[in-house]
Amino acid sequence: MDEDVLTTLKILIIGESGVGKSSLLLRFTDDTFDPELAATIGVDFKVKTISVDGNKAKLAIWDTAGQERFRTLTPSYYRGAQGVILVYDVTRRDTFVKLDNWLNELETYCTRNDIVKMLVGNKIDKENREVDRNEGLKFARKHSMLFIEASAKTCDGVQCAFEELVEKIIQTPGLWESESQNKGVKLSNREEGHGGGACGGYCSML
Amino acid sequence: MAADSEPESEVFEITDFTTASEWERFISKIEEVLNDWKLIGISSGKPLEKGVYTTGAWEEKSDEISFADFRFSVTHHYLVQEPGDRDGREEGVEDALPLPMQDLLCMNNDFPPRAHCLVRWYGLREFVVIAPAANNDAVLSESKCNLLLSSVSIALGNTGCQVPLFVQIHQKWRRMYVGECQGPGVRTDFEMVHLRKAPSQYTHLSGLLDVFKSKIGCPLTPLPPVSMAIRLTYVLQDWQQYFWPQQPPDIDALVGGEVGGLEFGKLPFGACEDPISELHLATTWPHLTEGIIVDNDVYSDLDPIQAPQWSVRVRKADNPQCLLGDFLNEFFKLCHRKESTDEILGRSAFEEDGKEVADISHALSKLTEPAPVPIHKLSVTNMVHSAKKKIRKHRGVDESPLNNEVLNTILLNLFSQFKSAPSDSLTYKLALCLCMINFYHGGVKGVAHLWQEFVLEMRYRWENNYLIPGLANGPPDLRCCLLHQKLQMLNCCIERKKARDEGKRGNVSDRSPSGSSGDTGRGADHSGDNLKEADKEVGKSWESWSDSEEEFFECLSDAEDLKGNGQENGKKGGAKEGSRDPVSLKPEGRLHPHGKLTLLHPGEPLYIPITQEPAPMTEDLLEEQSEVLAKLGTSAEGAHLRARMQSACLLSDMESFKAANPGCCLEDFVRWYSPRDYIEEEVVDEKGNVVIKGELSARMKIPSNMWVEAWETAKPVPARRQKRLFDDTREAEKVLHYLAVQKPADLARHLLPCVIHAAVLKVKEEEVLEDISSVKKIIKQIISHSSKVLRFPNPEDKKLEEIIAQIMSVEAIIARARSLKAKFGVEKCENEEEKEDLQRCPCPYATWCILYAHLSNHLFTLTESSDEVTNFVPHFPLIFLSCIELNLSISAMPPLDEELRRSGSAEERRFTAGSVLDFPPPTGREIVLRTTVPSPAPYSKALPQRMYSVLTKEDFRLAGAFSADTTFF
């Protein structure tokens, strides 16, 4: 199956604690929902291969802990990501208000500036909504992001969110070609290194 | 030839070839080639546009044929024309003159600045040349020449090809060509005379006209007028040193110990030799009719000042040696050196050590090859220190690639500039220094030596708690090169060790004497809690993840005294840990109260504890770690394990929290650590009061989830007594070892991005001074190109070479611009000094300087494709003259006499207005004569006739193209 995979993409899921990052991921990868999913410690990792427009892409998805204290640890995993999913909880305004902080964080630690960003408003199945859909739209437009509302519980929008993101990444050729090219180079001298997708954080000029 | 007309009779063809002579075969091969290239048929095309020979693209095709065993190359040279032009080849009007013959008379492309000599001589847009294939072969004898010419003639006749066909005769350097062009009923013969010395009657126009007319042998009287184009070229090539764009750097001064801080921080720039090799001034009379001017052996009307068209041409030196480019190239070459530092500096240093010191480790190093390997296994400190001693002892001042003084200046310089320039990092400066060392001070040896000293310095700083200056604080910046990250990492280690040592000093009684953090030699052997180890110990119990006694700041032998306070939350931990009054514990490691929050049960203020900083990571460590984490897979067990491996930080924070808040419970911790997991609700109690009731979120309540589990395990230990999350000793040793094993080539690869970065900045800086638009564009390209290339580790050599070549080309362009500016330096004659310099300028072409004022704009937009600037303004000489007058009022000009220029001093010279206008004899005289006359008989068709002549000091050439009507002859 790996042979016809066009590229491996690194995707990050970030956002405040308890907004449902791990649940979204679990829904996407295993199509299940666990109301009692333990709080993530550090980072977690899942893989899924999906097909977008006939192109197979292997997604290495890094799920991060939202707690303040883990934030000194997780940004290290931002390196080399091609896509990021920024999640907030539509029933908790404070998780929406904090989005700016997360964007700043991304800007600081991300090694590339053309990373594709997607905003996901989670938990739309709940009744006590605090953040209107339009607010999310407005925020996404302001920061040139993709936007979707979703519910990991009812499965609404989850698949769609990941597919949109991957499609967008594939449409941005500079973003993933270099990655796969880099991988190709690595394959030729396999003894030395392991195949981890590395786009180095090398000094950008000027 | 019969074979060609009857291709279907194959048998006859074979017979035909066996009987054919070599000559016939040769001719048929020529025909074959012409056929292959589709040159058969009537050629037609648009009339040539002005200057198209310069602006258009020229291409050539080659093939090889042989006459017996003598090889010839056949080359088709042609101006690339739009496809539409070529389609017309077949449809051309039957009785029109072949295109090449029309081109003979076209005056739009006389004297092209750069073209094949046949283009220059005959004005052709397309031709085929047959020349001996081997460079030193030549067709010398007259009969052979004739034989070749006959072959050409027959081939053209057989095929009906209208493209002129030339054969090169005599030695190649003489550029002697004869050729022929055929059309329906017309033929042009191309003939040539080449002499070393021109007969006196051919040195002037009237003599040449006589030759031309006699050659035409026109029967008509009076002769149709001959049109003439004349160009006189003046060449300036022996520049004075004054004109050098940049003095070469004084290398002796640098080595002599006067190494200024500036010298080492900056890259050099500019050409070592003059990037402008020649300057040509061409004065042209593009169109004169016979009789308008007189030019004979006693008198000439050809006054360059009066020429209606002037052009200046700059001839660039082919590959001017430029300093920045040299620096880059030399540094890049370093990347391919295979030697290790030890190999370069002499392994004997280590070997002899084994004899002197009866140390088993050194004996081992002597036995083990290659040298760098044992360093890893044994005490690095020991080795390096003894090596250092040894190297110092072993190498005398003479032997050392760098003498101590230079070295000290460099190192001092490296460390001293930081305060003044915090934005410049140590790494960047190190890169420039190594570049400099590589170029001026001993090449790869110097680099190895400096690097060794640098690594020793790093170790010294680590061991003595001196921070490395010139590095941004905080964890390694992943946007920088790995070497920079490593240095930042080392700095983090030093910082922590320093803080710890200082804490220890102020707190001696508190500390266990065995606290051995200062022992640097030990760290390398530790097998702490890094992830790899953890990976192997997958099956161990929870405690095993956090327990590693020797890593504790201070080991608490009696854990019972400080039992956890977990019992307060009523969970199962309580039973295990026993019960004690929590309040009796002294709180430790408090940072500050957490707002107004209080503990749920004792009601004490909730304190945020002092916590351990998480471990800083360099990108290679990070890569390693994410790989380990990813390798655990996506199963539930994998995820669990992954969480566990990352829980050290959580556990440490819990322990600190417990220590700071005796009697606390998990709810308290969660309220600080993950406030959203503590859900508060307003409820009405039995008395009717509204009270806020809180509880853990559902996910925190999951039995035996990792948070609960960790909480139960956590002992109340303040951060300073906890096991270090970040083992600075171990990490520092790792970094120091990493640094020590870098070969000069590795180092060059690490630092090449910095050097390229610096070079681009330098080029940019220089460009700003000159303001050349084309350069701006190239720099932009370089930046975007190299940021793409350098983003990835181990960029391809080819791409790096491209970047360096681009930088070099920019340097050369700027150097040329400077050289031109210096040569025409009068333009900005604002200060007196410059004016004086100008006065002293002994150049006979000083008048050209004035030219600059008018051409400067053009000169500085010189691009690679065109190196000639032409001014077509007819009254240009008038401007020129007025400028001379203007200049006269500024200063008296020196005489222009060639002899005086070489000897006498400026003061002795007197300027006279007349002498300015006295141009020296031209370096080259080119004359094109053209006419259309019937030939050979008065009633023949009127056909183009052309003769080109060029006269230089030691070369005279006549190139004639004479057409004749062949219909009745």
TrEMBL record, chain A:
GO terms for molecular function: G protein activity; GTP binding. SUPFAM superfamilies: P-loop containing nucleoside triphosphate hydrolases (SSF52540). GO terms for biological process: protein transport. Keywords: GTP-binding, Hydrolase, Lipid droplet, Lipoprotein, Nucleotide-binding, Prenylation, Protein transport, Transport. It is found in: Golgi apparatus, cis-Golgi network membrane; Lipid droplet. PROSITE patterns: RAB, RAS, SIGMA54_INTERACT_1. Its main location: Golgi. Its EC number is 3.6.5.2. Belongs to the small GTPase superfamily. Rab family. PANTHER family: RAS-RELATED PROTEIN RAB (PTHR47977). This is small monomeric GTPase. It comes from Odontophorus gujanensis.
TrEMBL record, chain B:
Residues 522-540, 569-580 have a biased composition (Basic and acidic residues). Its main location: cytoplasm. It comes from the Eukaryota. Residues 503-540, 560-597 are annotated as: Disordered. Residues 509-519 have a biased composition (Polar residues). The keyword S-adenosyl-L-methionine does not apply. Residues 751-969 form the Rab3GAP catalytic subunit C-terminal domain. One of its GO terms (cellular component) is Golgi apparatus. This is Rab3 GTPase-activating protein catalytic subunit. It comes from Callipepla squamata.
